[in-house]
């Protein structure tokens, strides 16, 4: 996913995005679709609706476990508010960089807004996350 999509970075984070039309070539594992019965070892547990999925990468370079979990919680909360505004089936990976450890939620939200707008997955009429 990270190699095939587009990415934009800021000083505190890098966001990788794979739009639904780009994810079709990767197969059902990456698009959120249920596996066909022939490929599945067990019956699929989720429906075949294509969902938007978000993952977070916060390495040890960001800080101790407490700091990394705090950064992850902040990013998860900010992305939860943005999920309805993203196109269905979009795959997003948010990679936190070491300066994210000292950033406030407002600063991280502003960075996410700028990056997602540059990637053209967030429409301009969606209110800014950092201003909430």
TrEMBL record:
Top-level division of the source organism's lineage: Bacteria
In its UniProt record, a GO molecular function of this protein is: tRNA binding
Q: Which chemical reaction does it catalyze?
A: Endonucleolytic cleavage of RNA, removing 5'-extranucleotides from tRNA precursor
Swiss-Prot/TrEMBL keywords: Endonuclease, Hydrolase, Nuclease, RNA-binding, tRNA processing
Region: Disordered; residue ranges are: 19-47
Q: Name one GO cellular component term.
A: ribonuclease P complex
BP GO annotations: tRNA 5'-leader removal
Q: Among its keywords, does the record have RNA-binding?
A: yes
- Give the InterPro entries listed for this entry: Ribosomal_Su5_D2-typ_SF, Ribsml_uS5_D2-typ_fold_subgr, RNase_P
What Gene3D superfamilies does the record tag this protein with?
A: 3.30.230.10
> E.C. number, please?
3.1.26.5
Residue ranges, compositional bias (Basic and acidic residues):
19-32
Could you say which protein family the record assigns here? Answer: Belongs to the RnpA family.
Job of this protein:
RNaseP catalyzes the removal of the 5'-leader sequence from pre-tRNA to produce the mature 5'-terminus. It can also cleave other RNA substrates such as 4.5S RNA. The protein component plays an auxiliary but essential role in vivo by binding to the 5'-leader sequence and broadening the substrate specificity of the ribozyme.
Assembly, per entry? Consists of a catalytic RNA component (M1 or rnpB) and a protein subunit.
HAMAP family attached here? Answer: RNase_P
Q: What protein does this entry describe?
A: Ribonuclease P protein component
Q: Which organism is it from?
A: Saccharopolyspora spinosa
Q: What is the lineage of its organism?
A: Bacteria, Bacillati, Actinomycetota, Actinomycetes, Pseudonocardiales
């Amino acid at each position: 996913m990270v190699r095939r999509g587009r990415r934009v970075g800021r000083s505190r984070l890098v966001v990788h995005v794979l739009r639904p039309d780009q994810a079709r070539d990767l197969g059902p594992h990456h698009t959120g679709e249920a596996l066909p019965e022939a490929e599945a070892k067990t019956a699929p547990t989720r429906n075949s609706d294509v969902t938007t999925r978000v993952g977070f990468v916060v390495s040890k370079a960001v800080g101790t476990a407490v700091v990394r979990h705090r950064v992850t919680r902040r990013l998860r909360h900010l992305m939860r508010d943005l999920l309805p505004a993203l196109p269905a089936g979009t795959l997003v990976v948010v990679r936190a960089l070491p300066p994210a450890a000292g950033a406030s939620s407002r600063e991280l939200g502003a960075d996410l807004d700028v990056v997602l707008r540059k990637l053209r997955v967030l429409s301009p009429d969606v209110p800014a996350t950092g201003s909430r």
